[in-house]
Design a protein that fits this description.
Blueprint (H helix, E strand, L loop, with lengths): L3 H14 L16 H14 L11 H10 L2 E2 L5 H13 L13 H14 L9 E2 L1 H7 L13 H14 L16 H14 L13 H8 L10 H12 L18 H13 L10 H8 L11 E3 L6 H9 L4 E5 L16 H7 L3 E6 L11 H18 L8 E2 L10 H20 L2
Helix pairs in contact: 1-2, 1-4, 2-4, 8-10, 13-14, 15-16
C-alpha cells in the first residue's frame, strides 16, 4: 500500500538530483524498497562530494561521512538532513516534516531506530553517527517481524550493541530472522573475542577462528561473553530435534542449554557431551562441521573400485554415498558405474544413493525442478536395482538461510510429489 511520506521522499529526491550525473531516478509510487534506498544513497554521495555515484554505501561513502562527523542539531547541509528524514520515513519511523531541520521529531525517529537496533543508551544522543546512517539506507528491519524468533532478535540486538563500534562490524537487522549477514556478524564477534585484530575479522571460519574455538570449551555452570556467543549459535540453529525444543540466548550455561546441546549433538551424530566442544561449535557455525571428526560414512564422485572399497572398509568406513546421475553438461563422470555396486557390497560396505543436478545456488530450487529431479531419480534408482524403501539423498550444496527456505521447500515438495506419483503408478 502506498505511503504518502514515502511518496513525498521519492518526489523530493528525484526533483533535487535528477540533473546530477550518475543519479538514477526512483519510481514515484509511495512504496519503499531498495531502489528508493539506492536513490537516497546516491544523493548522499553527491552531497559528500563523491562524483562516481553508486548504489553501494561502501568504504568511500562511510569514510567521508565519518570524517565530517555525526549529523546533529544545527547541521548546515539541509539536503543531508532531508536524506535522513526520507530514510526514516522509508523505514517506517516518523521523522516530522522533510524540511532539512534536525527537529525534535527527526531526533525522536533516530533515537527510536537506534533503540530498536539494540544500541546502548549511552551511545544514543542527539546525533546520527556515520554507521547508523549507513544502516538507515538499507532495507534491514530493526523491529520484530512476524514469523521471526524473539531469541534471535535478542541475539541480533546484543551483537549490534557489543560490536557496532568495531571498524569491521556493521549494524545488522533485528527482525528475528537468522540470515547470512547475521551469521557473519556472529562469526566476527567470535573473532573479536578471540583477540583477532579488527582488520582481520572477516566473518570466515578459518584457521585462526578454529584455533580459538578449540580453546573455548564451555560447560554447564559457565558464564560470560563466550557463553553468549555459544548460545547465540544455538539459537541460530533453531529446534534441536523433532520435539521442537529451542535454545535461549543467555549469559549463563544452564541445564536447559545443556539439554538442548545434548539433543543437537545426538541429532548431528557427534559426541553427546553436553558441552560446547569444538565439534559442537563447528557443527553450529558451518554446514560441514568439523571436517576432521571421526566418521564411518563418506560420499564421493569417484568410482569405487574393488581395491578402493577394501581400503575404505579397512579405514573404518561402513557406508559410501554415490550419485545416481549427473547433468548432461557435466564432465565429472560421477554417476555409479557398471559393476561398482557389486564391488561395494563385496567389501562389506553399504551404499546410499545421492541425487544432485547443480543445487549450488537458490535459482536451482523450484517446484518444477524438484518434480523433474524426483522422477529422474526414481527412474535411475530403479535402473540400478535399489529397493523401493531406499532413501535417496537430494543435495542442497550451499549454506541456505531462513530467507531461502521457501524456495528449498518448493523444490522438495516437487520431489515428494514426483516420488509419490511414481509409486502410485507402479
Amino acid at each position: 500500500m502506498a505511503d504518502a511520506m514515502v511518496l513525498q521522499a521519492q518526489k523530493w529526491v528525484n526533483a533535487t538530483y535528477k540533473t546530477v550525473a550518475g543519479y538514477n531516478a526512483v519510481k514515484e509510487d509511495g512504496n519503499t524498497g531498495w531502489n528508493t534506498m539506492y536513490s537516497l544513497t546516491r544523493a548522499l554521495q553527491h552531497e559528500l562530494g563523491i562524483t562516481a555515484l553508486s548504489n553501494s554505501f561502501g568504504p568511500t561513502t562511510l569514510s567521508k561521512l565519518t570524517a565530517r562527523g555525526p549529523v546533529k542539531v544545527g547541521e548546515s547541509n539541509k539536503n543531508i538532513v532531508k536524506i535522513i528524514q526520507c530514510g526514516l520515513w522509508c523505514k517506517g519511523y516518523s521523522a516530522g516534516a522533510i524540511d532539512g531541520d534536525m527537529s525534535m521529531a527527526t531526533l525522536a525517529g533516530i533515537r527510536t531506530m537506534m533503540q530498536n537496533m539494540g544500541l546502548p543508551a549511552a551511545d544514543i544522543d542527539n546525533t546520527l553517527p556515520a554507521k547508523v546512517f549507513k544502516a538507515l539506507l538499507t532495507m534491514d528491519a530493526y523491529i520484530f517481524l512476524s514469523g521471526g524468533l524473539e531469541q534471535i532478535r535478542l541475539m541480533q540486538q546484543w551483537l549490534n550493541a557489543r560490536y557496532w563500534k568495531k571498524s569491521t562490524f556493521f549494524i545488522g537487522p533485528c527482525d528475528g530472522f537468522f540470515s547470512r549477514d547475521v551469521q557473519q556478524a556472529l562469526m566476527k564477534g567470535i573473532q573479536y573475542e578471540s583477540g583477532i585484530p579488527e582488520g582481520s575479522a572477516n566473518g570466515v571460519f578459518g584457521p585462526a577462528t578454529e584455533a580459538a574455538l578449540r580453546s573455548h570449551t564451555l560447560a554447564e555452570g559457565d558464564t560470560g561473553t563466550w557463553v553468549q556467543l555459544f548460545s547465540a549459535a544455538c539459537v541460530a540453529n533453531g529446534p534441536s530435534n523433532t520435539s521442537g525444543d529451542i535454545a535461549s540466548f543467555s549469559f549463563e550455561f544452564g541445564p536447559k542449554l545443556r539439554s538442548w546441546v545434548e539433543k543437537f549433538q545426538s541429532f548431528s551424530a557427534i559426541g553427546v557431551t553436553g558441552r560446547a566442544d569444538f565439534d559442537t561449535w563447528a557443527q553450529l557455525l558451518v554446514s560441514y562441521g568439523n571436517p576432521d571428526r571421526d566418521v564411518n560414512c563418506c560420499d564421493t564422485r569417484f568410482t569405487i573400485t574393488a581395491s578402493r572399497a577394501k581400503a575404505l572398509h579397512a579405514a573404518g568406513y561402513r557406508a559410501v554415498g554415490r550419485y545416481l546421475d549427473e547433468p548432461a553438461n557435466s564432465t565429472l563422470n560421477k554417476e555409479i558405474q557398471p559393476g561398482e555396486l557389486a564391488a561395494i557390497f563385496s567389501a562389506g560396505l553399504r551404499v546410499f544413493p545421492i541425487w544432485q543436478y547443480d543445487a549450488r545456488s537458490l535459482a536451482d530450487f523450484s517446484y518444477p525442478n524438484g518434480y523433474y529431479h524426483g522422477r529422474r531419480a526414481q527412474e535411475r534408482a530403479e535402473g540400478y536395482g535399489f529397493n523401493r524403501s531406499t532413501v535417496i539423498y537430494f543435495a542442497v550444496d550451499y549454506d541456505a538461510t531462513e530467507a531461502d527456505m521457501s524456495k528449498i521447500v518448493d523444490y522438495f515438495l516437487g520431489v515428494n510429489d514426483a516420488l509419490k506419483g511414481a509409486a502410485a503408478s507402479t
